[in-house]
Each structure stands twice: as structure tokens, then as C-alpha cells.
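The aim of this short unit is practical: by the end, you should be able to scan a pair of folded records and say something sensible about each. We start with the first protein, listed as its amino acid sequence and then its C-alpha cells.
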Amino acid sequence: MVAEIVNEISEFLQKGRAKNVKKLVQDALDQGVDPKEILNDGLLAGMMIVGGKFKRNEVFVPEVLVAARAMSAGVAILEPKLIEVGNEPIGKAVVGTVKGDLHDIGKNLVVMMLKGAGFEIYDLGTDVDADTFIAKAEEVGADVIGMSALLTTTMPNMKDVIDVLSERGLREKYIVMVGGAPVNESFAEQIGADFYTADATSAAEVAKDAVLKRKAS
């Protein structure tokens, strides 16, 4: 019965049915299902399936957005219970579009996928300068700093963040990830980023893997 309701949560989330997800999450809690099980095997599992389909071009941005909305609706019901049982996120990520750049669709998808992978997210929005990225990362004890750029003219601002981290002796403290339409592997290497990923699902997978490896070492 537990597996059945958790699978239903995953299936409705994949279809973007927020109302059904909310009701089923509440039903599962009322039946005494472990909140962590609802989160991991229902909400996060469903979101990762959507992410995989997005990566393979089987679904597109609108489908991801409605699935993410359904996940948020479920998490809102679940959050108080997760706090009660002391559920720890796998890591903390500070994410934003760099200074001078106001594009946020790609960044928003990354935020959703990172949430889906179990991260606690601090979304700084767009037009974010180096000081703001670093101040927030220091404030919250972030594991990951994720930067997005859609304009070639704003790409150098990614390097500024990494340079300031180095100047302040903080570079090794963070996993720095970059992405966006004009960004590529070669540019990421050139500016000293840890990882470049081409899409939001890969970003979540790489971030999760990197954080878990770092915590295990």
C-alpha cells in the first residue's frame, strides 16, 4: 500500500498535476508513511524521471515547469514533517545569473532540478555580482556556487567570481559550476570552474555526485 501511494505521487508529479500531488502527499502522511520516503521515492524520483526525459528531448520546458510546480506543492505539505524528522539536504547551492545578464529560464530549470536532486537552494536571481555570490555562499555555508550566462558579453563575469574567490582564499571551499548557451567545456576550464554542464538535468547529477564525493573524502 505504501509503495502504491508513493508511486502515484511520482506519476501525478510527472504529469504536473499539483492538486493530486498535494492530496496524495497529505493522504500518505495521514496513513503514517515516512516523510523521507514520500520525498525520496515519490517527489524526487518523479522529478528525476522528468529530468531524464527533458535531457533526452522527450519533454520540453513547459512540462518541466508544471512538474516542478507539482513538486513544490507536495514539498510545501511535506516540509514541516521533514523538519520534525530532521531530514538533511544533500547539500546547499547558491545559484544565479551573472552580472549584466537578465536571462533566467535556464537558471530556473537548474534550480528546479537541483531541488529535485535534494539540494537546499539559494536562488539569487539575475544580474548577480561576485560579492553577492560569495557573501551568500559564506552566509549559508554553501557547497556549490552555480553561475549562468546567456550573453557572450557577460561570460567574463563568471571568471570575476572565481578570481575573487581565489583572492580571498576561498576557491577550494566551493564546487563552482557554470552553464548557459554560449558557455562550453573549454571556457569552463579556461576560467578555472570545476564543472560545465550543457543542461539542467546534467547539472543536478554532476552537483550531487561532486558533493557526495567531497563529503565522503
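Turning to the second protein, read its sequence before its C-alpha cells, just as you did above.
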Amino acid sequence: MISPFFKKKDSAASAPDQEARATSVSDPGLQSIEPGTDEVEQTESAAELFAVMSSSSKANLDKKSLDLIFSVEQIIQARQHSDRNIHELQDRLNHANNHVDRLNRDVKNLNKVIEEREKNILELENKLIEKNLKVDQVMEDYRELQTQMSGETEELKAVIDLEQQKYSSLMQKHNETQAERNKRINELEERISRLEAEGNHLRQKYETTRQEKAYLANMIQDFTNRMSMPFANQANSAVDSSGDN
């Protein structure tokens, strides 16, 4: 059974060990500091010394000395245990630091990737803004062109309506003129027919008159010939008589 003195010594020895462990865990600057080799060697030498003393001279010591030696041994064992814990924690800390370094490198790489992606996104946004501006300009031009084309279409519709009205009027005049022309042609054909009939009648009348005139001319010629023959004979006889004289 351990006396209260040894319990106090044990608690007093474990308190600095706990404070050291808390300091080594909480302070990043101290986490990288490993225990010195000289301190470890001194601890091992002290442990060996107390082991020799406890084995050789325990029989010659009184109870208080033995209790003191036992307390020192417990302190040394606690120190060794705390050293081992510190080494383990230091290894774990180093591993954690390496892991943190890797994570930091990964974070840096990810930050670079994110920056590049953000840069690409910014470029794409600028291109998209430019495209949107171009689309807006094209839409505005299209609306203006559509408005202009609508105005021109209305003007052309008005012109077409006017031309259709003019065409309708011209077609009506053409139809009237065609009807008048056909009527005039019919009248002229009828008049030509009448004139042809009159012409045929006049030709027949002229032929009849010409024949009558020819007949009369022949009769007059015959009569003239008959009447001139006695006068010619008398003239010849007169000429003959005058020649004889």
C-alpha cells in the first residue's frame, strides 16, 4: 500500500508531465521540439543507478529511504512513460503536420484551379455579355428593319390598291372601248356590205350605160359613115370635072 507521501510525490510528478503534454499539444512552436538526447541519457542513467541501489543496498536502508527510492523510481518510470507518450504524440504531430502540409498543397492547387476556373468563368461571362450585346443590337436592328418594312409594306399595299383601282378603271375603259370598237366594226362591216352592194349595183349600171354608149357610138358612127359617103362621091365628081377643064 502506498503512503500519502508517495501519492503526493506521484501527483506532483504527474502534474508537470500533464502541463508539459498540454504545452506541447497547445503550442505549435513547441510541437516541433523533441526531447534532447542528453536528457534521455541522464534519465536512463538515473534509472540504472536507482536500480543498482535498490538491488544492492535496499537491505541496508530504512523504511523512509526505501519509500523515497520507491517514489523516485515511480517518478522515473512516469517520466519515461511521459517521454514515450511525447515521442508518440510527436510522431502523430509530425504525421498530422505532413498531412496538413499535403492538405495545404492541395488547397493551394485547388485555389489555383479555382482561380483559373474563375478566370475562365469571367472570360465566358465577358464573352456572354458581348454576345448578349450583339444579340440586343441585332434584335434592335431587326425591330427597326421590321418597323421600316412594315411602313414600306403599308405604302406598297396603298400603291397596289391604287394601281388595282387604276387597272380596274382602265379595264372598264378598255371593255367600253372594245365594245365601242366592236360596235363600230359591225357598223363599218354593215356599211361596207351596203357600199359593196351599191358598188356592184353601180358597176352593173355603169356596164349597162357603157354598153348603151358603145351601142349609141356605133350607131352614130354608122350613121356618120353613111351620111358622109354621098358627100364624098359628089366631091370626087367635082374634082374630076374641074380637072378635065
